[in-house]
Specification:
Radius of gyration: 15 Å
Strand content: over 45%
Number of strands: 11
Low-confidence stretches: none
Structural class: mainly beta
Number of helices: 0
Strand order of the largest sheet: 4-3-2-1-5-6
Distance between the termini: 43 Å
Oligomer: single chain
Largest sheet: 6 strands, antiparallel
Length: 128
């Protein structure tokens, strides 16, 4: 299966479950993992895979925070008005916070996943 169509979300024990999205309703979703196990999850944590991998071969998911070789940090997000995943700058000494780029504007060998907005809220905090 193409990674681009995978989803992940946290179950009731705050464990990330990744696989097929099989249901989404009233604040809950269900994920079916590769082994066929099905998990009820919190839809607030639902993230779709971008289909890209970082320099270490790790999948990049919606709401992941990545760092480039210069130390700038970006969050992957879905841009509804363009129907695509994009990057938004969340930490930088040279770019304005909030600047957006097309997801494909960075080469995967230049970036590394350093966390996500759910488990690593500090990655979105200003260093000032």
């Amino acid at each position: 299966m193409n990674d681009r169509y995978l989803f992940k979300a946290k179950d009731c024990n705050s464990i990330w479950r990744a696989g097929l999205l099989i249901a989404l309703q009233e604040g809950r979703c269900a994920i079916e993992e590769k082994d066929g196990s099905k998990w009820a999850c919190d839809s607030e944590t639902l993230c779709q895979c971008t289909g890209l991998k970082d320099k270490n071969g790790k999948l990049i998911w919606e709401n992941d925070v990545v760092r480039d070789k210069h130390g700038n940090c970006y969050k992957a997000f879905w841009q509804n008005n363009y129907y695509q995943f994009s990057w938004i700058c969340v930490k930088s000494d040279i770019f304005s916070i909030g600047v957006k780029w097309d997801l494909w504007s960075f080469k995967s060998f230049e970036i590394e996943v350093i966390g996500n907005i759910f488990d690593n809220k500090e990655l979105l905090e200003s260093e000032e």
